[in-house]
Amino acid sequence: MPVTLHGVVVILIFYVTVSSGWEETYSNYELVSEEEPIEEGPRLDYNDPTWCHSPSLANGEVNCVSPRGKSYRSTLGTRCEMTCDRGYRLMGKSSVQCLANRRWSGTAYCRRKRCHVLHLNPHGRYTCTQGFVVDSRCDFTCEPGYRIIGQHSRTCQADGSWSSVEPVCTDDDPPKIRCPLSRAKFADPGALTAKVAWDPPVATDTADKALEVILVGQGSNTAFKEGATIVRYKVYDLARNRAGCKFIVRIVVRRCEVLKPPLHGYLSCSSDTNNYGAVCEYHCDGGYERKGTSSRVCQFNNSWSGAPAECKQMEFKSDVTTASALLDQFYEKRRLLIISTPNLMNQEYRLQNLMIQKSGCGLDLRHVTVIELLGSPPRERGRIKERPLHSEVIEGLRQAFRISRSYFSMLILDKHGVDRERFISTMTSDELFAYIDDFLLDEEERDRLELHRDFCV
Ligand SMILES: *[C@@H]1O[C@H](CO)[C@@H](O)[C@H](O)[C@H]1NC(C)=O
What we know:
With about 450 residues, this protein is α+β, with helices and mostly antiparallel strands. It has helices spanning about 1-15, 20-35, 325-330, 345-360, 360-365, 390-400, 430-440, 445-450, and strands spanning about 60-65, 80-85, 90, 95, 110, 125-130, 135-140, 145-150, 155, 170, 175, 185, 195, 205, 210-215, 220-225, 225-235, 240-250, 265-270, 280-285, 290, 295, 310-315, 335-340, 370-375, 380-385, 385-390, 410-415, 420-425.
């Protein structure tokens, strides 16, 4: 009976405070033991519904199995399984039993699960709905100029791991570059090119500051050739995104009409013969002399300066009475080959005469006029081709150049009337021409001769 009574008292007291928490429940038990001290340990009561304190688990669930049914969650021997809510991890024992000492066999609590802290990607950032706890969603964005590659958001999953993988920010925005405007320029005078200069283009990029601008083709401040030249620039950013631009440099060569060479003459022109700044010089063939301007310039307005020159047959008077009067007429125009023979039967003269007659064209090309001094006084004669010379002229020539009447000789005078070479035996025309070509012709005449050599056969 006292056992039953005591049990009733305990039950009553317990019912009053059963809804309180763990600590209170425990102290109630202490209170009871003080009221009724038990010498040999507690008596076991398998029916006591609050033998252990009522199990509870914040953010979790306790599932107890008692032999006496559902409402006996804290009877002696009850076993409880602890499970945590989603997003919480169970720390401690997952299964506890109400023991004879009125305590549970273990403790447990639920700790909020966290995903690891997301690190910050270069050029990226993120914002999360609830930090790094379960079900928080973090949304990723990239800096301007960068594009996100991968999932735009990650969610902290129930198992404490993040969904998907970290997105990356890549720079896929190409740089911008703007070329100078296309331009046209006239070629420089006397040239088919012109120097063109421009400021190199500046490139910009949303992501990168320093960009390398690469020129493809001809550079600034160099000579551009006639026509259109395309100049390109390209630029890469650090992510190898490419951009480019181009412009056109056009060089216009101003030209005059092509000059016609004079009849019995030719032109020698500088540069490209008829471009702005080109100079053309008038020259006349052997036996002809120039009348008019010696040279003309192609002007900016596409017209030639001056008027065309003409080549007129060279005139000379054979009936002058002094040697110098004769020589003056050839000054700077003709070379003279003076042939002297004691008589027309002279072997060397006959041979020479034969060769000279055959090579008239070659002599003309070399601007050579032949003067013949034949025989001795009183039957002495002098001639240029068929035109007779005065005896005073013959005498004057013989004295000025010391030409003997007693033997065959030949003398070459240059265009200034200077005695350059003397021969006392027959010369083939080849030998004669070789001498003139090597020692008497100027550059211009040599070129001209080269062009017309085949003209004389
Ligand atoms: C070209 O320019 C020159 C000098 O600058 C001038 O004398 C000439 O008359 C001009 N010719 C034409 C066709 O305009």
